[in-house]
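This week, work through this protein record:
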Amino acid sequence: MTTHITDVVNLLFYEDLSDVILVGNSYAGMVITGVAAKAPERLKLLVYLDAYVPDAGQSESDLWSAEMRATIQAEETAGRGLRQPPPPAIFGITDPEMADWVKRRWTPQPLATYTQPVSGGTARSAALPRVYIHCTGGLTTSTPLFAPFATKAKADGWQVREMATGHLAMLTAPRELAELLLELGARS
């Protein structure tokens, strides 16, 4: 995860970007949280798109249910060191052509990305506006997984929006997501 965070921070620096609206889907909620801790001066808004919302010092695996943790730890015990991608249908992708497109592009994810904690930020990073977009539709088992993060975001005073689509809204509802992101950008 540190590599993912560093890559984004470096992109912001080397491209000299500012007032960035950074969107993170799923695991990338961990990444954008880490980016905000390291480069808050370059950011305008953080958008958690059906994503994990960690507190400082938490890893993604800290946010899993005991059952999910046991399943994924079994993969690690098997010695692969990688988590294989789940079937696209879990994320609401039911169109066979799109599912095939996704499968050809997915790669296993190193298990270490799930166990590295997010570092704490600063007062400046804590003050960044945040929005949570919760995907509530589609044939998805991820909806219950991410519902607590939408609830947490609302309790923390974030704006919470819902989309009646699967977990990968950028694929299942790209136009609606783009319109929502443009609206959020105009308001921030």
